[in-house]
């Protein structure tokens, strides 16, 4: 468990995680994170990582610069917006590139690492061969997400409020969307700064850990929304759970490839 | 500032590029057969790219090539040679969001100007400065950029600013959506997007469907006609039209409307009446409603579609003018029209003319009542002097 990094949705869970050997924590923070429970900065322990996964507008980037001195006590920042890297690149903070869906090739990742990023979170819409290739050729140890619900769409719009208003429905900021043709189900969460849509099923890449050289990994990341600590322990110990995502499912993008499947 | 505004058009094919320039575009963007986000568009092969560059430069216009997929390892093969080729034929810039591409250009000292794609979701000046340090000369801002975002990015970076002003929008921040990957296995960030955000969904609370109304999240198209002047004041250098897969009629109509708006602003002759006319024409040509979206305020319920709607193909485009001599126009038919119809002819060198079709002569010289067949060549009497590549459409509105 020493390389597990997990997001914290409730401060009370820290002790429980520590009891099962997880000691690396990632915290979403007010104003700058989206899609996960935000913890007030003052309550976050200093040996933690901060998640800044919003695409930041000008007002927010100005706020972040004012907040910067308060963030210097943390171990590092997982960032989506490259403006965050620009602000903190000359500090001692570890900066981990976590641009959702973009860390899909070794060259991009290594460019970030060569520019000074401490690590990068590999996209998990990749096959296991692609993931292993990227890890093998990385210039520094990477972060590999092994369990979570993927954030698969991020809109600046308040999509649920808009629809509720149109349909005269009561306010609700957490809904399930079901697509009947493909039978896919998604979880939609709306916040002040936009709407996040998750795949409603957890993906579970835990087994892949055995096939990856340990020295090439900085952290195995768990992005938890609603699992209990005991459930997470069981899954990390090998219990069957969730889906294997794209590990064996290569995406296509030309209609000819699609029709040939 | 206004003298240097660029009108940037989509060019899905060489033909569309020629029409875009003819109707007033200053520059076009297109993709090659690989590495471009419209993987299922026709796109340009290498020799077509060279032809496009030569044609554009002969008119003192510019060409930008999209290299804007999010690359997987397998896609990097051949990229270096491709970038070197684009440099050798002197494209004016590439549009990219992947830092691997920027690094390759830098490492190999390839002479290519870099514009950062809207896929990079730039909304703040620190992000823009990062890309400036990577060698970019221009940033294509996220469609979510507000007036203040644009103003500050311009002020703090001095970079050229390109913004979309017209066309379809993603529901998500561009690049931050892989719904297509999950629903269809088609990779949205490599050009395979199946536009799942235009589908409808059941709307459930705790597994219980709470309305029969299908959940929809489709945005109306972007349309910045009412705010063009304000965009210029904010520091926008290039007005970009979306739509590489749209028809020549669509591209020509939209480009001409924005060309005239910009020119009228330059000469201080823009009127409310023209803006209202422009809005009506643009809504009609797309067959969709449109709205300014994020520039002035956060879009809400009125900037999306909710009722299930069919996008019927637009039948307004009646024909392409091939020739005009002594009051007789030669037309290549595109949609049915008949004697007695009121039509309009528009083109870049004159205002839009409205007249009634009094006669139709087919290729064998016979008088006919209806032009029924696509691409049939006919002649009509036209009381106004019109020109090759003008377009004839159904009369939409009084002008």
Description:
The complex is a heterodimer of chains A (261) and B (399). Chain A has 261 residues and is α/β, with parallel strands linked by helices. Chain A has 2 domains: 4-148 and 202-260, TIM Barrel (Alpha-Beta Barrel), CATH 3.20.20; 150-200, no CATH class. Helices cover 26% and strands 25% of the residues of chain A. Chain A has a 9-stranded mixed sheet, covered by helices on one side. The longest helix of chain A has 14 residues, at 58-71. The radius of gyration of chain A is 19 Å and the shape is globular. The termini of chain A are far apart. Chain B has 399 residues and is of the alpha/beta class. Chain B has 2 domains: 2-168 and 220-298, TIM Barrel; 317-394, Translation factors (Elongation Factor Tu (Ef-tu), domain 3), CATH 2.40.30.10. Chain B has an 8-stranded parallel beta barrel, surrounded by 6 helices. In chain B, strands 17-16-22-13-14-21 form a 6-stranded antiparallel sheet, with helices on one face. In chain B, strands 8-9 form a two-stranded antiparallel ribbon. In chain B, helix 4 links the parallel strand 4 and strand 5. In chain B, helix 6 packs parallel to helix 8. Chain B is globular. Chain B starts with 5 loop residues before the first strand and ends in a 5-residue tail after the last strand. Classes of the chains: A alpha/beta (261), B alpha/beta (399). The interface between A and B is large, with 69 and 81 residues. Strand 9 (174-179) of chain A pairs antiparallel with strand 8 (202-205) of chain B.
